[in-house]
Amino acid sequence: MAYRGRITALAAAIGLSGCAALYGLWPEESGLFRASAGALLFAAVSFPVGWWLGLKHDRLARMAAMDPLTGVYNRRFVESGFVRLAARAGKQRKRMAVMLIDVNDFKQVNDSHGHAQGDAAIREVATALQNGAQRGEIVARWGGDEFLVICPYADDKTVAVFLRRVRELLEHATLRTGVRLAVSAGVASYPADGVHLGQLAQLADERMYADKLLGKRHKAEEEAMQQAAQAQ
């Protein structure tokens, strides 16, 4: 996708240069030298123009596909791209995992540190997801403080490895920034749990919410144990 516009533009310039050469050979009085010179002159003009137009197209296409705050893919891109990914996986009889990830206590970050720090926290999570994506995972901002990750695998062990890597990166980011960064996650499998992205995202969202509640319960239990230990 990154070079599609430039490749297309250069291919068109080459084709037009070839046509210019053939056109120069068509009249009886035209010679090979005249045709070659005309084609070279046409190419000298069309190649830079074509490259520039292709570069503009590629930049616009990238801007349309990326989330401006985090630099990961946006929701519209992943929704349109999932159809092609699912078709390919179906033909190859492969499974995929769709993961929905939510930043824990994000409202507290905004309320305590301000919206600028909240945006910085979102970027830190996006960076951790991108750095954790080492097996072809596609990371997209789903909306607000939620991210969607499409994994080209669906086995629980590999998903767990990915999440553990991301959480380790977020622990380092917490120490570096002084802002607690943690996430909850839910996973749905294609095609076992559904074949449409909407179905999979909804199920992953339900499982993510259950993971968030479990995390809050564990945190409350740990705090209660610490208070009991301090009271003794």
Automatic annotation (TrEMBL):
**In its keyword annotation, does this UniProt entry include Flavoprotein?**
no
Q: Where is the GGDEF domain?
A: 94-224
So what EC number does this one have? 2.7.7.65
Q: Which SMART domains match?
A: GGDEF (SM00267)
Q: Does the keyword Membrane apply?
A: yes
Keyword list, A-Z: Membrane, Nucleotidyltransferase, Transferase, Transmembrane, Transmembrane helix
Quote the Pfam families the UniProt record gives: GGDEF
Bilayer-spanning residue ranges: 7-26, 32-53
Task: Name the enzyme's class.
Answer: transferase
Give an example GO molecular function. diguanylate cyclase activity
Under PANTHER family, the record lists:
DIGUANYLATE CYCLASE DGCM-RELATED, REGULATORY COMPONENTS OF SENSORY TRANSDUCTION SYSTEM
NCBIfam families associated with the record: GGDEF
- The name of this protein is GGDEF domain-containing protein
**What species is given as this protein's source?**
Paenibacillus xanthanilyticus
